[in-house]
Amino acid sequence: MKNIIEIMKYRTSKRAIKALTFSMLLVATTLLVNSCETDETQTVTTLNNLVMADEFDVEGTPNPAMWGFDIGTGVNGWGNQELQYYTNRPENVRVENGFLLITAIEESFEGSSYTSGRILTKGLFETQYGRFEARMRLPYGKGFWPAFWLLGANIDEVGWPQCGEIDVMENAGARPTIVSSAVHGPGYNAGLAITKEYDFEDARIDNEFHVYGIEWSPNQINFYVDDDLYHTITPADVTGEWVFNNGEFFILINLAVGGVFDGPPNDETVFPQTMVVDYVRVYQ
After folding, report:
1. Chain-centre distance of CA 141, in angstroms?
2. Catalytic pick from 170, 197, 201, 215?
3. Which of 4, 79, 131, 242 has its CA 20 to 30 A from that of 33?
4. Which residue in the list 126, 133, 165, 215 is annotated as catalytic?
5. What's this model's pTM, rounded to 2 decimal places?
6. 126 in active site
């Protein structure tokens, strides 16, 4: 697996500092928010309670009490011209050496030319408001589309986009220095979504880890990369109904292949590629 030596080295360091980092995170997050250079009119959520955390310390399948799987292709209800077949096989999704690994493979499987993984907390962990964050390292190459995002838990009743969607982080694999955020709702979805890009300038998404997060309150969503607050969305910014105070949302993490965001792989795209997730945490 690509960069497995790096992962193992990091894992050793992670064991040594994890307890200290975890115990200090609430204090550090508060200081981080207060230290960001933001407009004085901006407000953020009050973070004092860890309500969900997966540190991916148990080897094997992701914790079934926390994560389920989407299985199949776009005909199951998603699409965006994606090319992969999502599976629950360990080849595509597993926890190993303290990390969640979602791997895209070029192979013939159930009528598709690629396989990958998509996990979600639907029906297992759903909540409203707070700070949602994940520390991850992303793959690189034309045609990869890693994402960390939220959907309204009422999606089966009201459908999409009425349920609301918050894209904490998306990346077009051919652009290793750019990630983006977005919200989707009625009147502002798909190509009309409210989006913003974040440019690392002197860093990349594929050779180091970064923290991607939001702070979500009833009338505001702030988007962060590491210690940078780079996007704020309020009801005044959307071109339709503000649906982000209508109920609870669940978390999704996936690695798509192809699709409208970055197009299909090309001759220079290297397989397999892995999305490496260090942790997922939610505070309220």
Report:
1. 18
2. 170
3. 242
4. 165
5. 0.85
6. no
